[in-house]
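To the wet lab folks,

You asked to see what we're planning to order before we commit. Fair enough. Below is the target structure as tokens, and below that is the sequence we designed to fit it. If anything looks off to you, flag it before the synthesis order goes out.
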């Protein structure tokens, strides 16, 4: 009905209420963006009610494996995908510091731990283990310093030809010295595959520097991914590794299942601030009339249809779930809502393997470079020092959880010759396990053994795989060329309606928890501006920009205006 702009009659009316004073706000969606908006607004005296159809935390939450708890233990922990909270994040860590946690001086933030290393697992080749750098002490930098650092790191990929390493470093130098205007236009319209000349390079260059970066980290295809997005991410990671603009080490994860370490304490904090939660309530339509939002049609936990009303509304649903709730009249009132129809999502979903013996893989993340389904993984138990896995979870025989992200769902696998979407849930598990063994058991050492596999758990948001109509309730925004120009701002032209979510335009320009958190802050700021509040605005910290490169960027701005290429862009 929203698509036709027709408002459905409400079965009953339930005005938003809460214990705190101030104007009322309905936050639609309980993922990181919605929880952030609720947090910021509740701290500033607004009466906030949050509506979430399934579970608080959204894609960031952890969950219980059904019927897995025995002998008084907790259920085995599962998740949509493993958490990765790098030092390039600033806004999300700020929120984490403001969430109390027993015994932690800096709240939930103190639950972040840094893996010691990572590994690029090659199928049929020698695997590469790399130590993970810490935040470090910032040192003065020149472009030559950056080139040498990049060449040194890439030189560890011994199979990469030296000329290709040099070329890739030169391409990054082009991006690092490009002005923002060039990034927003030329590089936003250029695929990463094209920018890096991947088609003319070796297989290893393509897998590591083109596909490896985009598919395994940004969850989009190198042939489509915007150079602006990929380059900005690599720039941030580079300076993080060099100790610049970092909240912490390059790689950080939580020291316990996500809900234990972060989401549950966050919800407790928000309840203390007066936030009311309506879990199991599904947003069906945002109703619009007289130039503003007049209410929200929701299906309550009992299946009844209600209209909730508030002074302000923050839509914090994922973009694929938000769009059906906006009417044609709303799209006409603010064309940026209509442009959201052009944003694209794809599948990046997790599966967990529970093991009766700890795998001797690596003390951190492993990237299976050659895997058909672009697998990344981490063995979690050693990073949860406060948890005795077998004693705390499951039936007492499981000692570790190998959490795996599947980034490619549309290419054939090695067991069945079918894509992940064409496989049943059981076939997906067998296929992923086979690809992991192909990457990790190929050097004469049995890292993963069938006899040590206790069970597995695939994200329940995936359904219908192996049928003609596969579904995924938790798709991820991807970043093909041109995406940046269709991302909306948090403030809309509808005076009491705001947007939050990882699809909203934010400085990180990437579908991440940091982006979701930043969007919640921007939505809160837009609301504060609109009502003329005297409350302090939420801080929004952008990605780091090295001042040593400002002169080169300013020079490039002039060249860009004159229609000239970047001075280092020699083809």
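Sequence we intend to order:
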């Amino acid at each position: 009905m929203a698509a036709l702009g027709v408002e459905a009659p409400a079965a009953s009316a339930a005005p938003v209420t809460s214990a705190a004073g101030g104007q009322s706000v309905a936050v639609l969606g309980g993922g990181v963006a919605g929880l952030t908006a609720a947090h910021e607004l509740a701290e500033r005296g607004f009466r906030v009610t949050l509506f979430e159809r399934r579970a608080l935390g959204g894609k960031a939450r952890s969950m219980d494996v059904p019927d897995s708890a025995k002998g008084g233990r907790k259920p085995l922990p599962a998740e949509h995908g493993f958490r990765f909270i790098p030092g390039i994040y600033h806004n999300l860590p700020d929120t984490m510091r403001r969430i109390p946690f027993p015994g932690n001086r800096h709240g939930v933030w103190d639950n972040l731990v840094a893996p010691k290393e990572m590994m690029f697992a090659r199928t049929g080749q020698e695997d590469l283990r790399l130590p993970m750098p810490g935040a470090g002490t910032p040192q003065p930098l020149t472009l030559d310093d950056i080139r040498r650092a990049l060449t040194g790191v890439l030189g560890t990929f011994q199979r990469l030809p030296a000329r290709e390493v040099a070329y890739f470093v030169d391409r990054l130098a082009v991006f690092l010295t490009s002005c923002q205007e060039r990034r927003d236009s030329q590089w936003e319209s250029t695929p990463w595959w094209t920018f890096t000349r991947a088609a003319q390079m070796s297989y290893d260059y393509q897998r590591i520097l083109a596909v490896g970066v985009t598919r395994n980290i940004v969850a989009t295809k190198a042939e489509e991914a915007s150079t602006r997005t990929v380059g900005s991410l690599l720039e941030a990671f580079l300076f993080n590794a060099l100790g610049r603009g970092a909240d912490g080490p390059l790689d950080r994860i939580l020291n316990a299942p996500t809900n234990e370490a972060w989401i549950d304490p966050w919800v407790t904090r928000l309840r203390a601030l007066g936030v009311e939660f309506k879990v199991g309530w599904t947003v069906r339509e945002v109703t619009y009339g007289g130039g503003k939002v007049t209410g929200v049609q929701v299906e309550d936990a009992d299946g009844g249809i209600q209209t909730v009303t508030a002074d302000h509304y923050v839509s914090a649903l994922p973009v694929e779930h938000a769009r059906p709730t906006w009417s044609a009249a709303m799209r006409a009132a603010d064309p940026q809502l209509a442009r959201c129809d052009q944003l694209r999502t794809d599948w990046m979903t997790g599966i967990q393997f529970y093991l009766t013996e700890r795998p001797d893989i690596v003390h951190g993340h492993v990237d299976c470079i050659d895997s058909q389904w672009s697998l990344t993984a981490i063995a979690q138990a050693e990073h949860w020092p406060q948890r005795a896995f077998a004693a705390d979870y499951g039936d007492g025989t499981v000692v570790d959880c190998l959490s795996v992200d599947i980034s490619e769902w549309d290419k054939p696998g090695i067991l069945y010759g079918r894509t992940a979407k064409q496989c049943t849930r059981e076939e997906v598990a067998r296929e992923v396990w086979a690809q992991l063994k192909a990457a990790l058991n190929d050097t004469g050492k049995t890292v993963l053994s069938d006899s040590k596999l206790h069970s597995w758990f695939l994200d329940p948001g995936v359904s219908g795989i192996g049928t003609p109509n596969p579904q995924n309730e938790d798709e991820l925004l991807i970043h093909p060329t041109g995406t940046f120009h269709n991302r909306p701002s948090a403030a809309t032209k509808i005076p009491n309606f705001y947007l939050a979510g990882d699809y909203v335009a934010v400085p990180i320009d990437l579908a991440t928890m940091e982006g979701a958190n930043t969007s919640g802050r921007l939505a809160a700021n837009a609301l504060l501006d609109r009502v003329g509040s005297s409350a302090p605005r939420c801080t929004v910290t952008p990605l780091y920009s090295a001042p040593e490169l400002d002169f080169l960027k300013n020079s490039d701005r002039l060249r860009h205006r004159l229609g000239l290429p970047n001075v280092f862009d020699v083809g």
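Structural context that might help your review: The chain has a mean pLDDT of 90. The CA atoms of residues 186 and 373 lie 31 Å apart.

Thanks,
Computational group
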